[in-house]
Amino acid sequence: MGELGGFFLFISWLLAIWSTCAGIYAGKTSSKAYLTSARYATVAHAIFLGGATTALATLFVNSDFTNQFVWQFSDTTMPSIYKITAVWGGMDGSMLLWAFLLSVMGAVVVFTDRNIAPQLLSWVIVGFHTTTLFFTSIVLFLTNPFRYIKAPFIPLEGNGLNPLLQNPYMAAHPPTLYLGFTTFAVPFAFCIGALLAGRITSEWIKLTRRWTLIAWGFLTIGITLGGHWAYLELGWGGFWAWDPVENASFLPWLTGTAFLHSIMVQERKGMLKAWNVWLIVITYGLTVFGTFLTRSGIVQSVHAFASTDIGWTFLAYLSFLLVGVGILHYLRRKELSSDVHLESVLSRESAFLLNNLLFLSICFAVLWGVMFPVLSEAVTGKKQTIGIPYFNAVTIPLFLAMLILMGVGPLISWRKASPQRVLRTFVTPFIGALFIGIICVWAGAPSFYTTLSYSICYFITHTILREFYRGYKAQRLSSTSKGLASKDLTHMVRRHHTRYGGYLVHLGVVIMVLGITASMAHKLEVEFSLLPGQSEQIGRFKFQLKNLTTEENQNYGALMAQVELKDTPSDKILDILRPELRRYIRKEESTSEVAIRSTLREDVYLVLAGLDDSGTRAAFKLFINPLQKWLWIGLIVVVAGTLVTLTPPLQSKSSA
Amino acid sequence: MKRSPIFSLLAMAVIVFGTLLLLYATTTTKAEIILPSELASTPSQDRKRLRVGGQVANSKINYTLEPEIKLEFVLHDHNKTDLSIPVIYQDLKPDMFAPGRDVLIDGDFVNGKLHAHTLLTQCPSKYEPPSPEQHISKSDTATK
Lengths: 656, 144
Prior knowledge:
The complex is a heterodimer. Chain A is 64% helix and 12% strand. By secondary structure, chain A is α+β, with helices and mostly antiparallel strands. Chain A folds into three domains: 2-337 and 347-391, no CATH class; 398-519, no CATH class; 524-630. The radius of gyration of chain A is 27 Å and the shape is globular. The model of chain A has no long low-confidence stretch (mean pLDDT 89). By secondary structure, chain B is α+β, with helices and mostly antiparallel strands. Helix content of chain B is 25%, strand content 38%. In chain B, a hairpin with a 5-residue loop joins strand 3 and strand 4 (70-77). The longest helix of chain B has 25 residues, at 5-29. In chain B, 29% of the residues are buried.
């Protein structure tokens, strides 16, 4: 099976080379036959990489420890599902999965976009294979997962997968993130293709708008799932720690979100042609840079990936990309220059430009934070670092500014808005926001930022709901049928799917921001210890330790606590919390299984931290995180909004 | 059509504000990265805002819950046991904390003791494990 996998990998590599060459030839000569060949080779490339991935998964399922990678990341006691997810438990398999997902995107593109101008398609295929060829080469030559074990014996048992990774989120989080990264390669490929073909219109942007949205959606889901996983598993009561690995996925999200907005300006006004080219190149480049960051070992991270030379290969590839696009920009500088300028600061395009500026500022600030240790050592010779306080101090004000724009931008008209109208639009939500702000200060909000955040959230929600209401009223008036109200609403949303989908996404973001603000600003963190039978009163809750038990099973031994959670003063039993501490025998490790009682109001998050030396007293860590659940609910709304935007528009029967 | 001068001013303001914010946050929050051995060689010198990466020594780990929650251990450079420092962490012992494990500590070095505010054990999730030979002595083996 290992040989077969390696063989598939090699064939797919040859196919990537062939499609690149055939694509170049077809682009230069407009040869239909070569274009068809390049297309088929692209599809075959994906099929063979799929075969290689399946082969690796089979090796895992069969616990074939003649394979070095399988030995490293699995053992026979693991449930089958985690044997499959262990494929991306280490770097070699992750790279294979990445290359495979990338190739799938390519195969889908050459199928769905087969009817676009042949010359453009040829160059798009070439653009696409600048990514696949790199990743396939990495997998084949540097991180080949089909290597025999380097040992004189075949071990009967594998090294095993980290218990933290034996989790359902392992099945969802990394692949979603990779889907986000690889889907961004599609607009990137179209951009490169457009530059190579010399077709610098808004064509490539129109053709890839949906891809951009899908990529953004996957990345957003992937990042939030990662936060949710950390929240449930790591037992520190938080969801985001500004760790270099988290930042590595966040950087392309920031530029990708900027791109998502700025392409609207190009579509509408023909502005920002060169800007958009660079934004997508940077977004794709940052996914590559993230791999460099996490695999080169130049920054310290709790994830502690092995430092390998592969990181530098990624940096070299990134430099090649940037220089290549720089040359292409120079060659196409005439077509890329824009003769349309901004007319008024009170305009939609101005809001979009500021949005881009803020996103890039945040991106730069995060990048600065990640690279600071390296830069500091290079410049001053001193080893220094900056952590969570830095990231919060810089990004919170910038994100709040971003939020204000999110409330204002979508309601200002294109080109030039009249100040009177702008004033009329925003006066009521502004007064409402002011009112909320006063209430927050009166109620003793812990910081100015907290107050500001709640006020802005109100402001945005007000404007969005009003837009929905106005649209609905108009729809109701024009609607001839006396149908259900919900039918009219659906009709309205589907007819203007991009607008209302966008609003829905914004609303989801507001819900997430409320969750983040409340859980950060009003978080309560307490440590306490109890003997069985004892209880502790914290806030309006009472915790009573009912009993402590231990359990042994094949994989781990567990210490389990049963804690009764009561509401005071009513003394009503709310829940029985069952936090666990697991000791994995083979890995000589322990993990906490957190007990969480999650309601819309707050999360009661209880961690069993262990016993004292006498073995009778149990230590607990308690977090009370207000509105924590809203963060995850917000994500669902964001995804729903993205899906609405992606649905095909409803053709109106009455008028076009 | 001409460019809007107000927009340019606004954009400049954002950039200037962002830069100042970045510099301010950097200078007020930066921490010195230092090894346990460097601290151990100058035990009388107090230092604030440090990030110390090292390995938990195999000597005794003191962990009490009552009357106060406290974790005390000894830290040395990765795989170098000669120069070490005592560490005190007044919080619950984190998951996966054990002798020989690499940890990352943010804290202050006062009176020859490292007072940890945060203690992170390196997540071994994605580390590449050692070569199988080292494990073969432990695990059952079969001939090829």
